[in-house]
């Protein structure tokens, strides 16, 4: 038997399957109504079914949810009533930072934390939090060489405080400068995508509509608590700004294999260029073929030595000796070229 030829064929099949595994996976989404907030924000009873507000927050049903006004010593927050329990998710937020002064501060934050609705000193939210914080910091305290406004991520363990004096330098997970995000001429947005233990990605839109800039993309991020709430908060000190939330749109993400011949397949006309790119991972078929390549030589030797019984007859068409084998109770025939 030409074992080398068979191994070559199996290796080619393995390579094709590994490539196909990356292309077949497509990320689909389902809207999370419990974590979505759009105008008019409030129901007929002038309350929100899924979110709570507190502090100095003001709701204008036709325009925005204002966490702080352009006045000193303000702090406000907005938090979901139910935890964000999805394993993989995406949250897209439209916001606006504006004010009438040349000097301004301090910024606002997006939260995925175990704590909810607790006012504090970290952009209006409690310190020593447990979970993820995304900070849009507009006032520079002490970070030489860094351009502000600055957007950064921090994972809190429930014990480590935010280093406010150094603008979070010692606790920063990742970040980027975002000059122009305040008083932008287009709708300013952020989009946070999370795949559990695989990816944490933040994208910003503030220079041009539909032009998303990647702020950071982290592989194998720390795990977010199983019970964590989605929220937003902002604060002002001696300097101030308006910090507005315009809309919040949350989605549950899941993997779905593409349908054969679908127009939405990669490279087709129906491809969505704004779709989420999943973290790459090998398919189960690739692993199946890999195991065959590893085990085939040893298995074949066992067949020849233990399980295979030669027959005396000849195949009249192929003119090859035919060997009948029985492997784990299944009869099969192998044709061995003479």
UniProtKB/TrEMBL annotation:
GO cellular component: COPII-coated ER to Golgi transport vesicle; endoplasmic reticulum membrane; endoplasmic reticulum-Golgi intermediate compartment; Golgi membrane
Domain L-type lectin-like per the UniProt entry, residue ranges: 29-253
Record keywords, A-Z: Membrane, Signal, Transmembrane, Transmembrane helix
Main localisation: membrane
Signal peptide: 1-20
One term of GO molecular function: D-mannose binding
InterPro entries xref list: ConA-like_dom_sf, Intracellular_Lectin-GPT, Lectin_leg
Subcellular location: Membrane
Chain spans, region Disordered: 257-278
Gene Ontology terms: biological process: endoplasmic reticulum to Golgi vesicle-mediated transport
Name by which UniProt lists this protein: L-type lectin-like domain-containing protein
């Amino acid at each position: 038997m030409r074992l080398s030829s068979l191994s070559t064929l199996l290796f080619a099949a393995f390579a094709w399957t590994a490539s196909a595994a990356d292309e077949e996976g497509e990320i689909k989404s389902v809207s999370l109504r419990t974590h979505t907030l759009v105008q008019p924000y409030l129901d007929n009873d002038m309350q929100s079914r899924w979110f709570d507000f507190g502090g100095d927050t003001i709701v204008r049903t036709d325009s925005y949810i204002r966490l702080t006004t352009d006045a000193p010593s303000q702090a406000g927050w907005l938090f979901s009533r139910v935890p964000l329990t999805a394993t993989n998710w995406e949250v897209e937020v439209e916001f606006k930072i504006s004010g009438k002064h040349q000097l301004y501060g301090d910024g606002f934050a997006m939260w995925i934390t175990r704590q909810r609705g607790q006012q504090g000193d970290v952009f209006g939210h409690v310190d020593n939090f447990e979970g993820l914080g995304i900070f849009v910091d507009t006032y520079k305290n002490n970070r030489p060489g860094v351009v502000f406004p600055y957007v950064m991520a921090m994972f809190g363990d429930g014990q480590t405080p935010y280093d406010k004096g150094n603008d979070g330098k010692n606790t920063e997970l990742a970040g980027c400068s975002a000059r122009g995000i305040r008083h932008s001429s287009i709708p300013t947005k952020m989009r946070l995508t999370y795949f559990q233990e695989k990816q944490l990605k933040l994208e910003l839109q503030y220079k041009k509509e539909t032009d998303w800039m990647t702020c950071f993309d982290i592989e194998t991020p720390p795990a977010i608590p199983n019970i964590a709430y989605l929220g937003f908060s902002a604060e002002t000190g001696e300097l101030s700004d308006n910090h507005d939330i315009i809309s919040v749109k949350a989605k549950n993400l899941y993997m779905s294999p593409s349908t054969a011949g679908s127009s939405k397949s990669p490279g087709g006309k129906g491809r969505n260029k704004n779709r989420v790119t999943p973290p790459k991972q090998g398919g189960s078929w690739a692993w199946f073929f890999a195991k065959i390549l590893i085990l085939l030589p040893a298995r074949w030797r066992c067949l020849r030595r233990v399980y295979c019984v030669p027959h005396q007859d000849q195949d009249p068409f192929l003119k090859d000796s035919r060997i009948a084998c029985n492997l784990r109770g299944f009869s099969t025939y192998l044709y061995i070229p003479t």
